[in-house]
Amino acid sequence: MSKPKGFYIFCDESVKKDRYFSNFYGGVLLTKEDFQFVNNALKSKVIDLNLEDSELKWSNINTYRVESYCEVMEVFFTAISNGLIKMRVMFTDNRFIPTNLKEGQNKLEYQLLYYQFIKNIFGFRYLQSDYPLDLELYFDVLPDNRKKNKQFKNFIYGIQFLPELRNANLAIKRESIYEVDSKKHIILQCTDIVLGAIAFRLNRHHKDKPTNSYRRGKRTIAKEKVYKFINQKIREIRPNFNIGISTGIDHDPLNRFTHPYRHWLFIPKEHEYKERK
To answer: In terms of pTM, does the model score above 0.90?
Structure first.
């Protein structure tokens, strides 16, 4: 691999609990050298569309914003397909129910899953670096109290010392683990849209209808159009992409890092399987 100065990782989460799939986490990794180019391209598109005064979010999509959101996603996925961005999505399947949890683990589910996401999702364990890879991590504002958030950041800081990641030569400073306002970070906003789209389709919300109605609402139809556009972009990168399973590694574990776009269906090691009704 070339010798980047380091990486930025932007992280977001969505949909804690839903009908079929839950615990959606998303991450975007890019080199510090590429950040300004990608960020400026996205900001320029937002300005061209007169959207700079509003936060782009999956929940804000409506009939009048479909075309604008698709245009932003076009820029975002062009950066992915050109190798400037790596995006990862993790989620759980409600059929796989964790068992043998230790005392207190249920209360820390959010933090524990997020930790697994950061530790594994970009395939750092398969890197061989003879120089430090500086990581700076940007999290959308964490939802828990200060004590829990500090504990979580300590876990993230400690990832660099794990034996299985030693060869990656990661370098994370405590002061380089940020909580930020997504309104000020267009990459986080794009992450939210992709996460929302995947959760929307996996949980079959594209079929939702208002109570006592035979037709779907306009907002649901609008969201499905944006999802279909995003899915088309993903399939241009990887044909026949299945959004509901873990992406294959094509016989090379290093692809966990090199692939531009991947999904990870997280299944607890100890679990019981429960069929859907």
So the answer is: yes
